[in-house]
Amino acid sequence: MKKELSEEKAAELIQYSCFDSLSVDEIISGFSDEKGLSDFAPDPVLQMDPRDRSIVLFNSARAKRPHDNKTVFRSEVKEPTTVCPICEGNTTRIMDKAKLSSGFTFINKNLFPIFYPSAGGGLQEGVKTGNPFGIHFLQWTSSLHDCDWHNMDMDDLLIVITRLAVLEKKLLFCSDGIMPDSSRWNNQKQTFGFISIIKNYGKLVGGSLLHGHQQITFSNTISGQQYNNWRFFQKNHSCFSEHLMDNTPENLVIKDYESSILVVPYFMKRPYNCILIVKDVSRQFLSELNDGELLSICQAWADVTNMFFDIMPELGREPAFNILVHDGPGAGLYIEFLPYTQETGGYEQVGLWVCQADPASVAEYMRSKISKRQIRRLS
Ligand SMILES: [Zn+2]
Questions:
Q1: Could you say which DSSP state residue 11 is in?
Q2: Could you give the C-alpha distances from 321 to 112, 271, 307, in angstroms and in order?
Q3: Which of 40, 261, 325, 360 has the fewest C-beta atoms under 10 angstroms from its C-beta?
Q4: What residue ranges do the domains of the chain occupy?
């Protein structure tokens, strides 16, 4: 039997049909009003490691998260054997839902958030206290349990990424008086607060549920990597995506997607790490991209994750990877794909990375894997 969140169960979870007509205040209220969410709220404190400016948040409740994520290789997937809380409708209320060719994609609240509205119910109060505050979303790529970026239709993925872009734009550009002004980190763009978009797949890298999803946080806190991108820009007077395009030799290019390009970074820390660069380096946010640029991201994201499901078992490892969307000041716009192909040892912890493969060989193998897949163009 097909495993999915049914339309009937989703109807019971609808809080808002879509973000488009909502104010940021209404979106935040949707978090404060969510039953049970405050039980798993993080501690309202933040610490920073002054050596490398890593931000540390504390939330002991996250240890209670449900897991359905036992080791499953793609070739072994037959009938689902575990209960998926998402397909069962055992999740938070939905704030945005969009129809796909089969099923739908939707965004709701993370029941185990790393950021939470301040105690007063809103966000502004936190500005006065200097404590971390914000909201934490989950985007479920599809209501169908087994559908995700690696196996979905491009038209559907374009809808998925467009919903992400709509949310990103609303939060960053319409939060005046709610979030601190983050414009000083930007070039001529008035934004408020900081967005961070990631995907975890596999229990080895933090993915607690198999049902495909992305995570989005919106907070008053700049992440260590966002700060590093900005610092890179201050020092080099060009964004990191531009630097990477200018410093990637031809033999490290995996595939050109016309408005974006997939490369193995010359500093590859772990085998098969790769980066997708949006070629127009004036772009900083998903909401600034046109449909052609968004489609090129979908195509590459699908290609790379599909490859990971092939390559990681070849290495004797279960598929597990992180995907990081780097945006904002100093980044340009680039997406980092980090498969868990090698453990992190002591030397890596002191900043000496020893990688068990060389970038050129990895790029050559990924080119051979990916070459049969066609680039899709907008009709
Ligand atoms: Zn499911």
A1: H
A2: 21, 12, 11
A3: 360
A4: 7-370
Which pair of structure tokens corresponds to residue 246?
């200018």
The secondary structure of residue 323, as a DSSP letter, is E
List Cα–Cα distances, 304 to 143, 175, 203, 219, 366, in angstroms. Answer: 22, 34, 19, 29, 9
Residues ≥6 apart with Cβ < 8 Å to 221: 46, 55, 115, 132, 134, 194
What's the 308 CA to ligand 1 centre distance in angstroms? 21
pTM of the model: 0.92
DSSP secondary structure string, 14-69? BS-S-STT--HHHHHHHHHTSTTGGGGPPPS-EEEETTTTEEEE--GGGGG-----
For domain 7-370, the CATH architecture is 2-Layer Sandwich (3.30)
DSSP helix/strand/coil, 81 = coil
What does the alpha-carbon distance between residue 198 and residue 336 come to, in Å, rounded to a whole number?
10
Give 5 Cα–ligand 1 centroid separation in angstroms: 7
**Tell me: the pLDDT tens digits for 152-183?**
999 999 999 999 999 999 999 999 989 988 88
> Which ranges of 103-207 does DSSP label H, i.e. alpha helix?
124-129, 154-173
pLDDT of 379 > 70? The answer is no
11-28 pLDDT per residue, tens: 999 999 999 999 999 999
Residue 20 Cα, ligand 1 centroid: separation in angstroms?
26
CA atoms within 13 A on the CB side of 155: 6
What is the 236 CA–ligand 1 centroid distance (Å)? 45
Q: Which residue has the higher pLDDT, 136 or 61?
A: 136
Q: What is the pLDDT of residues 231-248, one digit of tens each?
A: 999 999 999 999 999 999
Angle between helices 154-173 and 291-314 (to 10 degrees): 110
